[in-house]
Amino acid sequence: MANRPSFGTRRRGELFDSLLTLFLAEGFAHLTLDDIAARLRCSKGTLYTLAGSKEQLVHAVAVHFFRRATDDVEQEVARAGDARSRITAYLAAVGAALEVASDRFMTDLDAFAPARAVYEQNTSIAARRVSELIAEGVASHEFRDVHAAFAADLAAVMMVRIQQGIVRSTTGLDDAAAYRELAAILTSGIDA
């Protein structure tokens, strides 16, 4: 029984999941704490047990979103076989994680510096992970002898452009589609 989460821990997780579902669908900038409490059918006091202000709550939900997304992405990578499949699985899973986010959520995320910083940090982590996956593929001779750091930097530049909305504005691709295209181009270009 010691390994089971307490009711309070479970309830916190449920609240964060509900907040995330609400924010992903509708964004968050226009919502007040009263709106959020009414939508989640809880009290503002309950929300204050999660964070001390709306801004802190939004930040905590952004962290929750990216933690959950990272877990989902790594599960997909673990199921993949060769290096190409792992990179494709990684970038496709990142795209899938972002696919559930409405345009309004992405706009609000970009406009709110603490949440944008969480996205930027996760983009940086993702770029390092792509670098590791490329290096593994080069070491196993699945990819030609590319400079793994350069290939990863190339991916990182595109990941930042995706995160900043530049790819969306110049190509019309949403973040999820852009990650799928990046996976296709990256893995085809480094095949052995």
From TrEMBL:
GO molecular function term, any single one: transcription cis-regulatory region binding
Keywords per UniProt: DNA-binding, Transcription, Transcription regulation
The keyword Cell membrane appears for this protein: no
Residues within the DNA-binding region(s): 32-51
Gene3D superfamilies: Homeodomain-like (1.10.10.60), Tetracycline Repressor, domain 2 (1.10.357.10)
Domain HTH tetR-type, first and last residues per copy: 9-69
The keyword Glycoprotein is annotated on this UniProt entry: no
InterPro entries: Homeodomain-like_sf, HTH-type_TetR-like_transc_reg, HTH_TetR, Tet_transcr_reg_TetR-rel_C_sf
Protein name (Swiss-Prot/TrEMBL): TetR family transcriptional regulator
